[in-house]
Every structure is written in C-alpha cells, then in structure tokens.
Amino acid sequence: MRFSLNGKSVSADPAPGQCLRTFLREQGCLGVKKGCDAGDCGACTVWLDGTPFHSCLVPAFRAAGRDITTIEGLERDGELHPVQQAFVDAQAFQCGFCTAGMIMTCATFNEAARRDLPRMLKGNLCRCTGYQSIVDALGGIKSVEEDVAGRVCGASLSSPFAKAIVTGQARYTLDVPPMEKLLHLKVLRSPHPHARIRSIKRDRATAVPGVVAVFTWEDVPRRLYSTATHEDHLVDPDDTYILDNVVRFVGQRVAAVVAETERAAEAACRLLEVDYELLPAVFDAEAAMAPGAPVLHDRSIAFHDNIYVDIHGELGSVAEGFKAADAIHERTYSTSRVQHVHLETHGCLAWRGDDRRLHVRTSSQAPFITKQKLCYLFGLFDRDVHVFTERIGGGFGGKQEMICEDLCVLASLRTGRPVMWEFTREEQFIGATTRHPMKTHVKLGAKRDGTLTAIEVRVVSNTGAYGGHGGETLAAALGSPIAAYRCLNKKADGYAVYTNMVPAGGFRGYGASQTTFAIESALDDLARMLGVSPFEIRRKNKIHETDRIESIWRDPTDVVMGSYGIDQCLDHVEEALASGRGVAKPAGEDWLEGSGVALSMLESGPPTEHRSGAEIRLLAVGSYHLAVGSTEMGNGSTTSHRQLAASVLGTCASRIAIINGDTDRTPYDTGTFASTGTVVAGAAVEKTAVAMRDVLIDFACRKFGWEPADCRLQDDSIVCGSSKVTLGEIHALGASEGDRFEVRRKAYLSPRSVGFNVQGMRVAVHRVTGEIKILQSVHAADIGRLINPMQCRGQIDGAIAMGIGWALYEKMVYDANGAMVNPALRDYRIPTFADLPRSEIYFADTYDSVGPLGAKAQGECAINAVAPAIANAVANATGVRFADLPLAPDRIFEKLGSRHGPPPKGYR
Ligand code: FES
Ligand code: FES
Q1: What are phi and psi of 446, to 5 degrees?
Q2: pTM here?
Q3: Is 476 exposed, middle or buried (0-12, 13-18, 19+ CB in 10 A)?
Q4: Which atom number of ligand 1 is nearest to the Cα of residue 425?
Q5: Could you tell me if the CB of 35 is within 6 A of ligand 2?
Q6: What is the pLDDT of residues 718-741, one digit of tens each?
Q7: Kind of pairing, strands 67-69 and 2-5?
Q8: Where are the alpha helices (H) located in 379-499, listed in sequence order?
C-alpha cells in the first residue's frame, strides 16, 4: 500500500492483522512507543490526516492513502515545533517515554483545548511528572536556565537528552533497527496459584510454523537464585529457578517459546499441554503464618514454614512506657498491592556479537548485578558478558529485578540467535513485582500533652511467592518511620511471609511507605484523642538534630544527621495550609472539608553495601568525557552528574559528554535504586572531578613552575595569576609525553544522611458518594542542596502523584484463585491529568555534610507522607478513620453513606 509518512511517499505492506503502531516502528519511526496493548496510555499517538490517534488501535491497512505524521516528522526545516520547544523549555518530561505521544496530542490543541486540559489529555498517561511540568510547557513557562560556567550547581539546567526526547530520537531499551535472524520470546504463565507440573507436551507447539525452540524446567540450569538485585547477594533468598516444576502464583513462568515472530511464539504457548497436580494455596499473609497453612518452600529457604524472615527489636521497655501513658491508641492499618506502572515495560535483547561475546541490552536498573547473576546462572566468564542499558522508560524500583534477561540469554545461547522479549502490560501486572502489601498494628502511648511514652509496631508483610526484597523492605519498614520520633520505649516485630501471590519487590519508598502510612495515621488518631493539634504532636515528638538516629536496634549505625530541616518543612506546610490558598470546597452540605499532615524521614540510600565508580577523561578539544555506571530512567542522574562534575571543573555542563549504565564502557555501579543516583554515583562523580582538577593543575605546575595554590580552573583553562593555558594545550602537551589525563574514583555509601518530607493536604469528601477532591496539596522537602531545582521539583511532583494514586485509586484486585482481575490500565487506574492538583512545593534551606556538594537523596522519600496526609485529612473531614488503602469511594460510602449527619465534634 502507499501512504505519506512524515511528508514522504512510502510504499510498504503491513502484515495481516498488524496495528499501525507496530507497522510504523518497522518503518523506523521508533519514537512511536508501546506502553500498553489496548489504547489506554497514549504513548503511541500519531496523526492521521492531522488528527491524533492511538496508533495501537488503528489497523495498519487503514494508513493506505492517508497522511501520517509521527514525532519524527514534527520538526520543520530543522526547527522544533513550538510544542516540542515548549517541552524542552519547561523540561516537561522525566523518563520521556510518554513524551512523544504527549507532544503529538498537545501539538493539535487550539486555545479552547488548552483551557480544557483535563479532558483533552485524558488519553495520555504520564507516570513520572505528575503532569505539572506539562502544564508549565503548555502555559509557556520556561523553567530551564542557562548553562553558565561557575553557576552550574544549583541551576535548572536542561537534560542532555532533551532534544532527542522531544524529537523521538532518544533510544529506549527495545528501540532497535531490524536485526538479522532476530527471534521473539514469549512465555506461558501458570493459571494456578500452586501446582506441581507433572509433564509438558510440546509437540503441537513446536509444529507451529516459525517456532524455533521451547524451553521448560527440564531445559534450564537447576540453580537457585533471587531475581532481586543488591550488592550483597545474601540479603535476598535464593528461592527461584529460571523455570520450575512447581508454580507458586498465577502468572509464574511455566515455559518459554522462541519463534520467528511474536505471533508464532504466542500461538505456540497456547498449544503447550501442561499436566498440573494442583496443590493447596494460601493468599493472605496472616493465614500463611497459621499452623497447618500450605507451605510454599522447603525449610532450607523459609525459617519457619512460610515466614521468610522475622525481625524483632526493643529499645527501653514498651511495657513501662504504656504504664506511664495517660492515653493509649491502637489500631491496625493496611496498605494494598500496587504496581509501578513505568510506561516502558520490562524488555531485553540478547545476542552473541561478532566478538563471540554475549551482549545484553536491558531495561534493568542494575546492569552490573544482572551481569553477575547471568554469569552465575549460565556458568559464563565475566569477560564474556556485556550488559548495558539505553535510556530506560521509568523504573521506580520495578526494574531492580532480573526477570527477563535470564530467559533471553538462555534462548540466545541455545539457538545461537538474537532473542528479544518485551513484556505486555498484562504481564507487567501478573508477572513482574509489586509493592509489598503490609498490615501494621500500631500501639502508641502518650502523656496528656502529647509526649510519646511508647511506640509498638507489628508488621506482617506479604512478600508473595518469592522473597526478593522481603527482608530489606521489612527492615526499612521498621526503620526510619519509627526512628523519626524520639521516644525512650520502642518495640517492633515484623514478619515477611510467603504466599501464593505475585512476588512483591522494591518500589519507591521501599517498605517505609507502608509503615509511614500506619504510624502517621495512628499519631493523628492519638492527637485527636488527646485534643492536641497534628502539628503540635509532631513538633513535640520529632527527632532532634543532635539525637541518635535509632529505631528499635541498639547496634551502632552509619546513619548520621548530615543536615536537619524538618522544622522548616513543618513551618512551610503549616503556614501554607493555614493560608487556605487552595480552592474552596464544592458547595453543598454533603461536602465535608478537612486537612491533614504527615511527615517522613528516610535514609539517603540502603543499609546494604552500595558503591559506584566514575571516570573522567580530558578530550583533545579541552572538554571532558564522563562515564558513570548508574542508569538513567528519568531520575535525572545524567543531568545532575554533569552539573556536579562541571561545578568542580569550573566549566559548563554542556562541555561534559556523558555515558552511563554499561558494563563494558563505564565503571562499576551497584544499581540505580534507593535514591543512590545522587548520593553514591554523584559522590563518585564529585570525587573523580576533584581528582581530575588536581591532576590538571599538578601537570600545569610541573610544566610552568607554578604553585598549585595559585592555580584554578576557569573557562576551560588553567589560570595562574595573569598566566593562562587552555585545556586543549594541556592535552596536547600531555599527549606528547604519553599522559592521557584519565581519572577514575569510587564512592561507597557510608555514612548515610537522612532526608525529611512533610506533606499537607486539604480535601473535600462527599459523604454520600464517597468522592474525595484534593483542594490543596503542600509539600516541603529537606533534600539538602538542590543540584537542579527544576529536576528536584519534578521528582517531588511525580512522587506526590504516585502517592495520590496509591492513596485513592490504585489496587490490584484478585479473584478467589489468586488471579488478578484488572491487569489493564483502563481497569487499574493510575492518576490522569484530571486527577491531580498542583502542589505547592517548598525546600528547606540546608546543606548536607555527607552528600556530594551538600545534596541528599530525593527520589523516594517524598511519596511516603502523601497517603497518610490524605487519610488524615479525610479523618479530619468526616470524623471517621479509614485505615485501609486505597480510600476508594465504595469504602468511604460504606462507612459514611448511612451517616448523613455532621461529623462529630472534636475532629476539626
Ligand atoms: S500503546 Fe497505544 S495507547 Fe498505549
Ligand atoms: S516522563 Fe511521562 S512516563 Fe516518564
């Protein structure tokens, strides 16, 4: 068929049944993205005769005779379209995976459409930004600042990939041109929550034309491992096989098929005949702890039947603390199972190169640990494996997991051909990891004035069928949310329990989010009981600057108070909430209004080992090349790393070329998770830049007889009094003597500082329908020095959006057999543009003594206070405590529907 593609006449025929999205990608338009399979996300938006369509919903043959425009065709004569330029100016993206589709939609807006963004943008989802920077872009706001040497750190500089992102040229994991002999991998997943596989018949599957191989548990190395990635492999249980003869959740991988096309692989999966012996299953964590519950793993893995790990500790004596209390509050709070929903699903491509080495291109947040695991599983030498990332379309902890690379590598090694596997959105829900649902019983004792005398917490965490991250998230759950308050008597007991549910894993906030919800809700309930204001009870009990940072353990810790800004955060939020700057509540007495606050504290980085390296080279032209092992998934680390290096080297960020996340080309990095992009990888960059500065000045001093103390780097030269030599000249001089000006340094995460966040919410709750409207959202963060303020604000906007989704809408729903019933974005609802308020965001003025150039971690902590602030505002509005997330309208209606009276006195 013939059609016009980005102004050029094209003749090409789609495959039968092919959608326009896939067809356009085959034509080289890799800016057309796949975020779902069902028209729900908008990442694939293109124009058909000037009108935006979700191309995944359009049969490709309908392109015949039409005029198609993709993001690649939006530029005119080398000039960005005004909307592309606006997205650059406001940096209206983080990972950028949604950006092409978002721009294609926005670029059709007239003035009327711009005034109706909630409706006009309902078909385009963004998981990273909270949409606020997109509003800025459409409002013509320019957030990006100029890149000026000497003023780099603390400036809102643009991402080095901004232009590539808005033009669709940025390459994500599976944006690859057609590859010779490429095979596609698909898996058959278990329909049963617990079963032993007696046999798998593959004859009918292998007879499907195009099928090359089928792999079952009998074909894989019988080696236990954990899919979780941490520097210390011992913190996660080795409880998983690549393919197993026992399935422990609905959605577990049963067999893998590789074929010439995805369609053939899918067809073959459907034709595999599996004989299952069904086993009893258990889904609830407390039921799984009870005597007689079905046991998932043998005793060498779980300590006590299904309890993978239990953690206990006590400081002082809570029994004495409760005796001394004037009031005691106790209640159980629970949080739901939710998914990361990064718009780029998991994906991997593995092949043997001309160099005979194995190359693995993956969406992993931890390519170096992934490489180690692949070497272990397949008995490969380190030198024979290369794992790397391109730009990653969001992660949020979901890609701190090796769940697709193993099968791609297996299939590639066995077939000798390149193998690609891209998760569908449904697989992302049923076969990837989730947040750990936790049930937290909190008991608090206090004096009449609100001074805490005892804190006791019991947490039961549902880790699902496999235990990766189960112990670490539990430790985090029992850590900073309790340490945030000073109290002489603290006790906690925690259990991470195996069940026949999809495995849980790392997720922004990493366990601390769940107990922050419980403890911050309980503290409000206690305050109300005592007639103390929510701000007062927090001010009275919060940790002090000079306190030891300790939760329930006496062991020495490497956590220190590198800076302290919690008072500033509380003041900002209280003042903003008191001012009532938010919109008024809707008219009518059925709308109840209330406000709430919550605080959170989080360590900058995980307690387990974490290390990063960086390398800087001086180039012949006098600029630099920086290599960092951490990955870029929208967290902005490439931008802030360039700023850190440029700041030390006295140059502009644009003079520093950067590569990242590649086991061949960059130094080692444990992985980009637990907010380590700034505090560990960033520290490595700072150290390396300092070393490079010293090397350059020392060289110049040797050459010209200068004193180091009189020299400085300025304008890409070394200046000594009135003398000056350019770095290009230095490079040439060094080259003549064999000096290459290459420096490499490592950073290790210890000690760790702490960051603080305070969230305030004012809400209106409809007491009949259960609807909740957010009237005002205020957030204050103490994240040390802001390396890039615009980027910091974006991270917080995104965390608030994700916290609102968790609090109000998101929930993975399961049937009685443990099968998820809403594994699609239209049924599992993440916040859309219309759902989110514009938050007032404040930053404490602090400079951290630990982090690089005064910065602290920022990516995670902001989410933790959001859900409890909403729950506290709802309790304040209605007089009723909703202790279980999400605060869905049906739950609100159930408790309030019959009430129809004003809230009881004492709640306002
Ligand atoms: S990929 Fe087309 S709407 Fe999601
Ligand atoms: S920037 Fe929108 S999904 Fe990442």
Answers
A1: -150, 155
A2: 0.95
A3: buried
A4: 4
A5: no
A6: 999 999 999 999 999 999 888 889
A7: parallel
A8: 405-415, 425-431, 470-477, 480-483
Residues in the chain: 908
Q: Which of 93, 166, 795, 833 to mutate to test the pocket of ligand 2 (most atoms within 8 A of CB)?
A: 93
| Separation of alpha carbons 601 and 892, rounded Å | 29
Residue 72: DSSP 8-state: G
In angstroms, the CA 225 to CA 233 distance is: 9
pLDDT band at 472 (very low <50, low <70, confident <90, very high): very high
Over 570-618, what HEC string results? HHHHHHHHHHCCCCCCCCCCCEEEEEEEEEEEEECCCCCCCEEEEEEEE
How far apart, in whole angstroms, are the C-alpha atoms of residue 566 and residue 781?
Answer: 8
Ligand 2 site-directed mutation target among 99, 344, 633, most atoms within 8 Å of CB: 99
CB distance 511 to 436 below 8 Å: yes
Q: For residue 853, name the pLDDT band (cuts at 50, 70, 90).
A: confident
Instruction: Give the amino acid at 467.
Output: G
Give the list of residues 6+ apart from residue 316 with CB closer than 8 angstroms, or none. 488, 489, 490
Q: Which ligand is nearest to the CA of 343?
A: 2
Note the pLDDT tens digit of each residue in 309-324. Answer: 999 999 999 999 999 9
| Half-sphere exposure (Cβ direction) of 832: Cα atoms closer than 13 Å | 17
Residue (of 347, 424, 532, 507) closest to 41 by Cα position: 424
Angstrom distance (rounded) from CA 82 to CA 333: 49
Span from the CA of 98 to the centroid of ligand 1 (angstroms) = 10
Helix (H, G, I), strand (E, B) or coil at 376: helix
Residue 722 neighbours by CB under 8 Å, 6+ apart? none
CB atoms within 10 A of CB 127: 26
With a Cβ cut-off of 6 Å, ligand 1 is lined by 21, 34-36, 39-44, 54, 56
Q: How confident is the model at residue 899 (pLDDT cuts 50, 70, 90)?
A: low
H helices of 310-435, in order, are: 318-323, 367-378, 405-415, 425-431
CB 183 within 8 A of CB 385: no
Rg (CA), the chain: 28
Angstrom distance (rounded) from CA 117 to CA 816: 40
Helix (H, G, I), strand (E, B) or coil at 73: helix
Q: What is d(CA 628, CA 676) in angstroms, rounded to the nearest whole number?
A: 13
* Closest residue CA from atom 4 of ligand 2: 95
Does residue 571 or residue 908 have the better pLDDT? 571
- The predicted structure's pLDDT at residue 898: 57
